[in-house]
Amino acid sequence: MAISFLLDGERIDLETLDPTASVLDLLRTQLRRSGTKEGCAEGDCGACTVLVGTLEAGPKVQWRALNSCIQFLPMLHGKALMTVESLAHDGIPNPLQACMAANGSSQCGFCTPGFVMSLHGRAIGATGCELPVEDVIAGNLCRCTGYGPILEAAQEVPVLAQDDAALIPQLAEIAGTPASGEWQGRRWFAPRSSDELAGLLREHPDATLVAGATDVGLWVTKGLKVLETVIFIGDIAELAAIEATDEALFLGANVRHAEAHAALAQLHPDLGELWRRFAALQVRNAGTIGGNIANGSPIGDGPPALIALGAQLVLRSIEGTRTLPLEDFFLAYGKQDLRDGEFVAGVRIPRPAPGTVIHIAKLSRRFDSDISAVCGAFALTLEDQQIASARVSFGGMAATPRRAAACEAALVGAPFTMETMERAAETLREDFTPLDDVRGSSAYRLEAAGNLLRRLWLREQGGAVSVLDMEALDG
């Protein structure tokens, strides 16, 4: 069965396709849209940024900036696509392009189309448009260091009109239909319901599940891995639910990080800040809550924070559902408690009790768009300045995201003082023996993890604990 998508309102059907060919390859080699560039082929530089529109309730078309280098072709099914060539009409640049050309925003020009697409998305109300412009383009790298004029152009261009009325009926015709195919003996499926997914997994228990492809994409572009059977799950609407109650926040596995940000920030500001730094906007627009968990990475940013808050993971198969504490899902490096035929359906995060002391911090070599060296998360309850309970979780310290049992034991029942934090920091050597790697030595990780405990106490006393905090106090 073909996939169908819209490019500038024109329907394109692909009858046969390599399921792990990228959208970028299609644009450059078949559609001859060479304005979209390949800079890194791993979703890091933003030179390949395009806008992809999805039909959502309203009805309306919700546009998102995405890295086309790690988006596989079947992920375009039922969507609308916009490239840098879409913006000019009759040879006349749109207002953003004209402004950037006039103020010298482009130097060598290689990265410019990606910047244009990210900023055009901001101008037309794409996901993330409410963010400061610096955050919108954090995933676009300029080797010529021309950021000043680019930022100025973004601030000068007003909101641009985007008329999607003609796209809505066309997308309605193709968006809800499942798709599947075969390419050189390899099978792929794009189901549209959880029941359909559960059935496919029973038939193909070794299939690779792909939601946003922000990690699996690199298996192909960098690792040159051949995926024999692929199930694309990113468009299963029932897995994209966000449900907030007085007791908890439930996030379906397909909730993209960009959409999860506001709901998580309402649980606690530290969660909002962690998710704001969760890669770049293009990655947050693709990557999902469930994918970040199911991936099982020891340096994934989400699990340590969710474990500290007592999150429960919901798994589903054709036999039904089961729920387990999130920390119990991670068994060993690359091994999760996921039975044949099961998939991550969502995660339930209890709403923190009033007065809970929460501190979540990510340490990385680069502030933006970088992987954690250490990610620490702490949730303490106090009674008369005594620590009544403690949940302490770290990423980057072991083969899996993990709670620090000895540290928690040192905290519970002790007074909430710096001396207690110092003693608890020392016990981290009993909990973890971190590896040395390019992101940090074992000694650095242990020292940094202990410093996060100290920082928790200092912040609760109203002190400035980072450059950003000091700037906030000065302001």
TrEMBL record:
Gene3D superfamilies: 3.10.20.30, 3.30.465.10, [2Fe-2S]-binding domain, CO dehydrogenase flavoprotein, C-terminal domain, Uridine Diphospho-n-acetylenolpyruvylglucosamine Reductase, domain 2. Transmembrane segments: none annotated. Residues 181-354 form the FAD-binding PCMH-type domain. The keyword Transmembrane helix does not apply. The keyword Metal-binding applies. Residues 1-87 form the 2Fe-2S ferredoxin-type domain. Its EC number is 1.17.1.4. Keywords: FAD, Flavoprotein, Iron, Metal-binding, Oxidoreductase. GO terms for molecular function: xanthine dehydrogenase activity. It holds the Pfam family Fer2. This is Xanthine dehydrogenase small subunit. The gene is xdhA.
